[in-house]
Design brief:
InterPro entries: ModA (IPR005950), ModA/WtpA (IPR050682). This protein is an alpha/beta fold. Helices cover 41% and strands 21% of the residues. The chain has 12 helices and 11 strands. A 6-stranded mixed beta sheet has the order 2-1-3-10-4-11. The longest helix has 15 residues. It is elongated and about 55 Å long. The N terminus is likely disordered.
C-alpha cells in the first residue's frame, strides 16, 4: 500500500470514529398497530424518528389480522392492539415478551352518518335502528374478529338492537374500511371509533354509544418475544412519554394514566 493510500485509510477510520453515536446506533423498529391508529401513528412515527434517530416502520390493519400474522412469524417488534383479547391470545401462546405489556389508550365508539350535517340520534334501547337505516346498510368492522366490530356488536346487543339489524350490517375488514363505506355514501350509517370519525369530512358523528353498553375500549401495547433491542426499548419508552401523548390526544385518544 502506498503512503497516500495509507493516509486515506487512516483518515476514513478517524472519520468513522467521529460520527455521532446516534447515527452509529441507528436501528429500525417494526410496529404492528390497529388500523384505528392510522393518523396518530403517522405523527408518532415522525416524532420518534426525529427524537431517536431510529427508523419506525408501521404496519396498520385490523388487530385480528395483525395478531394472526404475528402467530405465523411476521417480524414485528411491537404490537398495539385495539382490544385486550388479541393481546391475551398472543400472550397465552408465549409470543409476548414477559413484563412488557401495558395499557396505552382508551377510545369510544360512535354512530356516524354520511354527509357533514346529518341530524343527531338518541342511542338507547328504544331507538328504531332499522327505521333509521331505511333499507340501507350499517357499516361495521367484522363483528366477530375486529375489535371495533366486536365492541359495536356488544353495544347493539346490550341495547337490544342487534337482532333487528344484524341482516343489514355490511362488514368490512377493518374500522377504516367501514369508515370509507359511509364517507363514500355506500352505507348511510356506520359504527366506528370516535377517533376514526374525525379522519373524514364526509361523515357526521350523530351519537355516541353508552360506555356501559360495551366492554371498556383499551389499546394494550407490548414487545414481541425475542425482539429485544435498544431501539425497541427506546420506542416503548417513547410511547409513554409526552411526545406520543400529544400525538394521540390530537387524534382524540385518551391516554391511559399510569
Amino acid at each position: 500500500m502506498s503512503l497516500t493510500s495509507t493516509r486515506r485509510a487512516i483518515a476514513a477510520i478517524l472519520a468513522a470514529a467521529l460520527l455521532p453515536a446516534t447515527i452509529a446506533r441507528a436501528d429500525s423498529v417494526t410496529v404492528f398497530a390497529a388500523a384505528s391508529m392510522t393518523n396518530a401513528m403517522q405523527d408518532v412515527e415522525d416524532r420518534f424518528e426525529a427524537a431517536s434517530g431510529h427508523e419506525l416502520v408501521v404496519s396498520l390493519a385490523g388487530s385480528s389480522a395483525l395478531a394472526r400474522q404475528i402467530q405465523l412469524g411476521a417480524p414485528a417488534d411491537v404490537f398495539i392492539s385495539a382490544n385486550p383479547g388479541w393481546m391475551d391470545t398472543l400472550e397465552s401462546e408465549g409470543l409476548i415478551a414477559e413484563g412488557t405489556r401495558f395499557d396505552l389508550l382508551n377510545n369510544a365508539i360512535v354512530l356516524i352518518a354520511h354527509g357533514s350535517d346529518a341530524p343527531q340520534v338518541d342511542i338507547g334501547p328504544g331507538m328504531d335502528m332499522a327505521g333509521l337505516l331505511d333499507g340501507g346498510r350499517l357499516a361495521m368492522a367484522m363483528v366477530d374478529a375486529v375489535p371495533a366490530g366486536i365492541y359495536g356488536k356488544a353495544s347493539l346487543t346490550s341495547l337490544g338492537l342487534w337482532d333487528g339489524i344484524a341482516r343489514d350490517v355490511a362488514q368490512a375488514d377493518n374500522v377504516r374500511a367501514a369508515l370509507a363505506l359511509v364517507a363514500t355514501g355506500e352505507a348511510p350509517y356506520g359504527i366506528v371509533y370516535a377517533t376514526d370519525a374525525s379522519a373524514s369530512d364526509n361523515v357526521t358523528v350523530v351519537g355516541t354509544f353508552p360506555a356501559e353498553s360495551h366492554p371498556p375500549i383499551v389499546y394494550p401495547a407490548a414487545r414481541i418475544a425475542g425482539r429485544e433491542s435498544e431501539a425497541v426499548a427506546t420506542f416503548l419508552e417513547f410511547l409513554r412519554g409526552p411526545e406520543a401523548r400529544t400525538a394521540f390526544e390530537r387524534q382524540g385518544f385518551i391516554v391511559v394514566q399510569e
